[in-house]
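Comment thread on ticket #2218

A.B. wrote:
> Attaching the input chain for the structure job we discussed in standup.
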Amino acid sequence: MTPFIDAQRLASSQKTASIPTGSPQLDDLTGGIKAETLYLFYGDEELTDALFTHLLANGLKPTDQCPEPEAVYVICGNYRVEHLVMDTEPLIRLVEDTGQLPEAALKRVRVLVASSADQQANLTEELERVIKSSKNTRLVLVKGISKLRMDDARKRNRERVHEEIQRSISSMKRICAEAGAPLVASARESQRGRVPVPEASSYLDHVAGVTIYLRKRERGARYNRAYVLKSPITTQRAREYAYEDDGDMGRTTPPIRMSFEDLLARLRSEYRDALVKQGRREAFDRLVEAWSAELGAISFAESLSLMDLLLLTGLVDDRRVSQELVSRMTDVEKRIEQLEHHSTTNQD
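C.D. wrote:
> Ran it. Output below, let me know if you need it in another format.
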């Protein structure tokens, strides 16, 4: 049975540590993301994805109480690949901004995927296993928590589909409440009224402790708009919000050379030394020479993660070597043709 969290208990829990959303305006509306609560954000998918990315980066940030926090990211969607993948590039940038090594932080994210309502219902067992085995889960995110209610392929058995979705939501809420981790979910909007309601609104309104609708403003606008529809700490209201880009999130971005040296030390101990063949270890050392020679270009590029830049630099150096080999082979072929022509002329 799903634990019941009343408004008084939830309001008192606001005094405990919370996970910032990355936006001071959203933090003001939610009081921060706290345990024992199901937070429902719905509306434009781009906005909910951006929120999830900020929450993940902040939720993975080490604290005195939890030096290696973990997170679970549940993705619910149909069989289309773009609906079942997690965009890590913006997450990597935010994780780097919090002073963490992306590779180490991403290892602490467990991704679970459901592409049908029955899979979503069965997925809760794996969620419970993951949380119990780690004991460091600080955050659980569910993308499209009610999406499969309508997108499940079983069109002739809608009642069973709806029951499976409701059962999975109740189970996820119970599991997170028992583990002391907040459950943050996203949903699509259903166009009804001035402020749309979320899909499966009647059930989600019953189980969610906080419900916020995110509306996108015109293209290029810095601020979007958030509508609080349900909350124990504030009345219904709306507010414009944006994410911070400065140091107010407590970011301590390390210099690129420091990040490079830290990553290089990890690669040497965890990868290079484990290579079986000596030739491959020597090839790794030559890659290090190429990376070090182009550290200026790596520092200048800001749109890619450090690991992506190292991979790109390695590919560029491979292209350089292959082009040099092609040029040398072309010269050798020309010389061979000249010698053959000279030999033929002498024979004549």
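A.B. wrote:
> Thanks. Noting for the ticket: The longest strand covers residues 70-76.
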